[in-house]
Each structure stands twice: as structure tokens, then as C-alpha cells.
Amino acid sequence: MSTQYEMVIGLETHIELRTETKAFCSCAVTFGAEPNTHCCPVCTGMPGAIPVLNERAVEYAIKAGLLLHCRVSLWSRMDRKNYYYPDLPKAYQISQYDHPICTDGWLDIPSGEGMKRIRIERLHLEEDAGKLTHTEHGTLLDCNRCGVPLIEIVTKPDFRSADEVTAYLQELRERIRFAGLSDCKMNEGSLRCDVNLSLRPAGSDRLGERAELKNLNSFQFAARAIAFEAGRQAAVLDAGGTLFAETRGFDERTGETFSMRPKETQEDYRFFPEPDLPPIVLTEETVARWESELPEPPASRRARYREAFGLNRETAEALTVSREAADAFEEAAGLTRYPRQLATLLASDPARLSQGAIPVSAAHLAALADLAGEKTIGSGTARELLSLLWREDQDPREAVVRLGLGKLSDPAALRALAREVIAGNPRMAEEYRAGKTAVLQALIGQMMRRTQGRADPGLSREALLSLLSI
Amino acid sequence: MEFSITEIAQLANLRLTKEEEAALAVDLESFLSLAAQMREPEEAARRAELPSVLRQDREQSSLPQEEALQNAPETRDGCFVLPRAIGGESHA
Amino acid sequence: MREPIPDSALALSRALSRRELSAREAALACLSRMEAREDELHAFLTVTREEALAAADRVDSRRAAGEELPPLAGVPMAVKDNLCTRGVRTTCGSRMLEHFVSPYDATAVARLREAGCPLLGKTNLDEFAMGCDTGASAFGPTANPVDPARVPGGSSGGSAAAVAAREALFALGSDTGGSVRQPAALCGVVGLRPTYGRISRYGLTGFAPSFDQIGLLTRTVEDCAAVLEAVAGFDPRDATSARVFSEGVLRAVGEGVRGLTIALVRESEEEASPGVRRELLRAVRCLESRGARVDELSLPFLRDMLPAYHILAAAEASSNLARFDGVRYGFRAPEAVSWQELIRESRSRGFGPEVKRRILLGTLALTKERYDACYGRASRIRAATGAALREALARFDLLLLPASPETAWRRGEKRSPVALYRSDLFAVPASMAGLPAVSVPFGAEQGLPVGMQLVGRAFEEAALLRAARALEEENA
Description:
The complex is a heterotrimer. Chain A is of the alpha+beta class. Chain A folds into 3 domains: 5-281, no CATH class; 295-403, no CATH class; 411-468, Arc Repressor Mutant, subunit A (Orthogonal Bundle). In chain A, 39% of the residues lie in helices and 21% in strands. In chain A, the strands form 4 sheets. In chain A, strands 2-6-7-10-1-11-12-13-14 form a 9-stranded mixed sheet. In chain A, strands 5-4-15 form a 3-stranded antiparallel sheet, with no helix packed on it. In chain A, strand 8 and strand 9 (138-142) form a beta hairpin. In chain A, helix 5 (298-309) crosses helix 6 (313-319). By secondary structure, chain C is of the alpha/beta class. Classes of the chains: A alpha+beta, B mainly alpha, C alpha/beta. The interface between B and C is large, with 50 and 72 residues.
């Protein structure tokens, strides 16, 4: 890209809310179900069927707005956006036009050395469309996704690079996901973003003609599409050409953007207030209650954990992969004398932490950390026990006794074991006695193996040494 | 009171014959002139509306697939079927 | 010939509970009445004979088993064909939905089925309830039972005619801008448009949701109260449904009008035909003689409400009827090669001219360039006139005006669209403000029934029906 231009980018992000049911009917929100099995008269737009707004969708939209420091509208309403497309059964999308539920927010993102504030213009509630599959037998319509609640978050044109866009999307996704408002899975379409990009000569404050890049399905694709599009626009300008406002798609195989349609043929959506839905009226108290339910954002928790428990970055990140994990960690950390061991133990399997509710009680997690911290059990045993507790929550102290997992520290037993190990490895014993003391580690390893790691390493060493020096 | 009946019909997704266009243009014009005669109220008022009834986020049974599709003109693999698009599959 | 059955729903209900006849006999009497009259009237688009008899039999066997039954159990009903009925086709009077069979019941229909009312069939209407004489039905017009050469009014003309001809004991209709009250007036039956939010709209294929309200067509005012109690009440499937109780209306109907203050709307006197005006003034004397206080009131904005109503209703309709695209149900143009063509052709051939006209008007009113001058201004008028009406109703208990400026006109009489819209003039105020209104037969002009309309405060249907009952007694 030519250096004389500056990119000006604004984002529109659509996020599917993780409610149990759709925005306007009681059909379950699902992904990958048999087609048209989570449908009803309302979401398939049958005659006479009318919408009733899901209160949790309102709650989640507002919580998302609060996470983005938005102003919440105590009075807002739904509007109809009218256009024909076969994936839109009613031929209008219930959305919000001039009274969005949240406005005027911001989000700070890392940029270069410091932080940068991205302003958020609005956040509104709307419904998703169905899924079309184009086959040789025609186009197939599945309405399972029709009516799934979405929020659309529109930023000001504050981004100046693809990195900033990625940083914003990461921060946004983490906050929304952490608060349990959405899965934010780009590959399943629960987070989608459109990029509005234009170029201007560096130093100018005029906005150029913008291209809207649609349906970018991953952070990487968004970054690649931005890079390609900026280069394309620069080339047109450098060649003395003119740009015009248009909607462009992104071809994931070629990495190129392509024109879909010019903006001036943009339809007149004929927005008007949704007559089936009276205004959404909220009280300050309700909004305050929702605000109080929001979790502390993951970034500030990570900072706190690292400070308080001396954790490294990876461990802190693993613990904040979900709100459930972070909450479980914090509660258990308050009950154990070994919070750091607890952290390492939990973080040893990050994938497990991201799967929703933590199935082990805080008391049991704390007890497990105590057992490890007191060296009653080794770290391998501790991890095994954690897996056991994950499958079936129980008191780890009882499990240690029942399964005989405690450390072997009986000198007589260890001495007997050491004798067996030496007898079974005469060559190693020879080598040791010949002065190659490094093999001692291997012999200790043998003892550990034979006891599934339960042999106390110090006492094992002593037992071996006393026998080898004979 | 200029408007294009063709454009309006396009937006409404209706095909009109020349005769329909002519007759409807006259009707629409007479409505617009009626509308123009409406006297704007001096004081703004807000319509008396009860706040919206909201719904609890609790699943209730959906229609069985065969009922969801029972009125469909054409189906295949549990889906509604329609002919393919002209001019690509660009989304509105 | 079968024994005639009692004339009103409540009288039939009493006869049924005294076991003077069975529900099956009542349903059969209605069905044979239909056989005798339908060729001439065409009030019904679909007759559900087997279903009616099966429902009647269930009531009879429950009664035989000694079960305590709801008051309307065994009273046969007719339902306007824009209310969804599970397993029975719901055409909305349109080619578009000629073969549409709903997989669900409208809440009002479900409640009446639950109450044991056998469904006799689905009644004719102007296509998608857009019209005022039932002549805009895709399946042919309905005749007025009082004089079959005349229109029954509309759009609930089939329901009004069915009740007037005693084919059904009562019927459900829908009233957007007068579609229950005007045909009730023209056919000489009672027509109630309850307060917006009183009866769930779930399952009503409305055309303008902020106006649509399910209405009742009955032979007596008391029947009206009884049916209202059976269908009204909060429904979680309708976001505009009100959480108010609907009991006690029937008990209040006979309380008389003493102490009520009623406003005669002056402009309605000026706009009504001579015969209608005469009956209006007679109604004033009747109410006064029974102890009500009647004063004149001017509603100068009445005429502004009509264009505002039509713009707003058409705007909502243009969006509400967009779902009829031939994709998931309904008429599909068979030879379309792309989905774009399929949608356009299905709509162009599935809808009749009046529906297209209103869709286009509404589309125009919502375009960016026109929005403020049309939709915006009409909304502001709606808000302001609604406030003025509520203010008037703070001073008066009820407003009195005719339900229709004129009596039933001859079928086939050529009328301009604007003239047809004008027939909603007296009906539109209640629709615009969401207020309850009733039309009750009162007198006649040249042998044709006149309907007197009362408009009341929100959720005060009882006061409305008390006054209607007084007029009904005088009319008897």
C-alpha cells in the first residue's frame, strides 16, 4: 500500500445472543439441528403469528452495552426494516432504527505502545435471518436461525489499521463471551463483522468513498480483507481513478475482495415503528441490577491474579477463559493456603475451563490445592485427581485415602522397593558404583513409575543411596 | 407531488400492467392530496400505549417439521425450496 | 323441518343446560339453516359440518356425564376467515391463501373451542379485511340477509350476515377501522370492537397491527358480553395484550344508563344520511328518557382522522402483507425461474386489486421522501386526536354517533375508492385511539337497519354495553 494514504475504518459487528430461545418466539436457539425443526408460526412468518420480545434478549443487549460503556435508553422501541429476501420470512427484519437500546459507548484497545479508545455509536437489538443453501435443485431455506436475537454494534470510524480492528474484535469478543452473553464463534456465525473502509491522504480529515466489506468469517479474514482492500483502493487512487461507495465481498480462497453492488442502489428500507410491539420501557433499578450482575472484565482480573498470586501470563489467561472458570478459581483461592498451586493445577487443562460451568465445588478445589501444596500428593497425582473430580465431584482427601494415592514415605517400604529396582537394573547399579552418579535420577524415576508417582522423591533417593553405597 | 409508480411497485414487489399503473397512479395521487390536507396538530402528544409485554426466556415446543412445512409449495430435505437467484447470491 | 332453536346465544345456552335440546340438535339446526340460505347469502367460505357435529357431540357427552360446562358450551359459532383455525383452511378471502391450512389456532378461537363452541365454518370477508362491503373477497361477495340485493358491509360481512341470518348464534370478526361495527349496523346485529389489547390478536391475520382488534358479532347485547368474557383476557403470545380482568361485564349489562353522561358527536349529525340522523336524535331522547345526561360535543378533528387512519393502516399493511411471497406457503407462480421472479409473480397474481392498491399506498407513505409528510404527520395526528378523545372521555362516560353514515347500499353500485373509505368516518376514531366501541341496531331507514355506535373509555366495555342494552330495549 502506498504510504501517502491513511485507512479510515468503522466496524459493524453482529453478535448472536446466547439466550435459550429466539428473540420473538419460544423456539430454542440451536446450531446444526435438522432443518426447520426449531420453527413455529412466529419465526416462519405464518399468517396471524405475532412477536413477543424475549426479556433476556433485552437484558443481554443492555449488559453488552454496559460492557461497552454505553448509555442505556430507558425508552426504546423496535422498528421494521422492510426488504425482500427469501431468508427473511416476514420480508421485514425486526430491528431498531432511531431509538436504539444503547448509544454512545467506547472500548479501549491496545494500539502500538499504548491504548486507544474506539468510540461506539450505537448498539441495537434485532433478529437473525434463516439459512439458504444453494444446490443444483434450487435454493433451500432452513428457518431454524430465523429470529435468533442479535445485537449490532456500530463503531465510529476510529480504526486506522487492521491490527486495531483485530485488537478491538478480540477485546469485544472476550468481554461479551466472559459475561456469558454470546459464544462469539465466528466459524458458527455467532459473531460476524462488516468493515467500512475508506482511504484519505495522510493528514486530511475528509472521508473518502467507502467500501463496505461483508461477512468476514474470522479475524484473519478480516485482517486480510482490509489489507487487500486498502491496497486496491490505493492503486485506484494512484492510477488517478475514482472510487465509489459500494458493498464488497471477500473471497476466502483468493484473499481478494470483489464488488457486490454499488451503494446508490441501496434499497429504501422503509423503517417504521414495529406495530406489533409497544415500546420497551425499563426502570433505572432494572438497569442497575443488570449492571451489578456483570462480572469484572477478564483483563482486570488477569492483572489482579498476576499481582496477588505471582502468576505468569499464560496461567492468568487460562483462568480467565470464561467467567465460570475465573469465578471458580477466585472462590477456591479464598479457601486454600496454596492459591498459586491451585492456579497452576486449573490452568493445566485450559480447554476444560472454557466449557461452561465448573463441575467441582470450590471447597474441593481448595482441598486439592492443599494436598498438592502440602506435598501429600505429587503434581501428576493432583492433575489426575482433578480429572477425577471433574467427572464426579467428591472430596479429594477421601479419594486419596480410598484410592491409596497419598505419597509413599514409609522408609521400610521404600527400602524394599529400592532393592527391587536395583535388582531389576543391575547394569545401572554397576555404572553408579563405577562413578556415573547421573544414573541415580533414572533409578529414582523407576521408583516413581512403579508407584505411579507416589514415592516421595527425597526418601526414595535416600533409600537408593543407602543400598548402592553398600 | 411527484412519485414514480414503477418504483413504488418495485419496492412493494408487485408487477403492474400499464392499465393498473395508470389507474393506481391516480388513486395514489388522490391519497397524497388528502394527506396534504391533514392539519398538523399544534401540540405534540405521545400515543397512549401500554409498555410491551415481554416474554420469559423459556423454551416451548416448536412445530414438528412436517407442520412447519405443511403448506410449502415445494420441499426437499426438510427445507423449503425455491428457484435460484438471478444475478448471483448477493445478500441484501 | 326442525324445531326452531332459541334466537340468542344465552337463550340457547339456557335451553342446552336445561336439556331441552342437545348441542348436536343446535348445530344441525344451524347447518340446515345454512343449507337453506347459503346459496343466496354466501356468508361462508368454508363449512365445517363434521367438525361442528363432533364438537357438539363432545359437549353432549360431557353434559350427559354430569360435567359442569362453560356457559357457551354447545353454542355454535362462525369465525371470520382471517382468524387461524388449526386443521381448517384460512383463506383471508384471498387467492393467495386459498389452500392455506393453519397449523395452529388463534387464541380467541382456541378459547371458544375450549369453551365448547362448535365451529360451523369460516366466513367471507373483503380480501385481507381490506374493504367495507365484502365485495373485495376473491371468492365472491356476500349478500345482506335483510335485503339480499344489498351489501352486508365489511370487511366482516360474512360474519355479520351469518349472525343476522341466524346461521350462527354468534361470530368472530375483526375490526381495523370499523370492519365489525359497520357490517353489524348494515345487517342489524350487535357488533363490538373491544378495547385494543382486550382480546389477543394472536392468530388474527391482521393488516394493520396497531389498529386490528378481534370483534364480536352477536344477536343481543347480553350475548356480546357473554362472548367477550369467554374470549378476552391476557395472552402471553400478544405483546399488546392487556393484563386486565374481563369478568363482570355480563352482570353489569342490565344496570341501565341512569347517571351516565353521554356526548352526542355533532359532526356525525352533519355527516349522516337523513334517516340515520333521525335515528341518532331518537337515540338521544331514548337515553335521556332512561336517565342518562346527553350533551353535544364537537370533535372538529374527526375529518382529519380519516386520511391519517388510511395512511397509517396502509403503511402497516404494506409491511404486514410482505410475507406473502409464495416461498413457505400460499400461492406460488408455477413457472418462475428465479426466486426474485417467483416472489414478484406470486404476489402480483395472488393479490386482488384493492390489496395491491393499499400496499402501494402504504409503500409510498413509508418511502424516505414521503415518510414525514405521510406516516409521520399521520402518526402525530393519531397521537393528538387520541389525546383529545381521551380528554373528551374524561368529561363524558360515552360518545354517541352512528356506526355508519348510511345504511346498506345496493350491490354492484359503482363507488369510488375515496367514497368507500369515507364509510369508515364514524368508525375510525375508536380505532385510532384503541377505544372500545359497539354498534347496536336502532331503528331503520326505509326498512334497512341503522346501527348506533357508543364509544367508551379503555377497558370500560361494561358502560358501553349498558347504554347499548338500553337502546336495544327501546328497539325491541
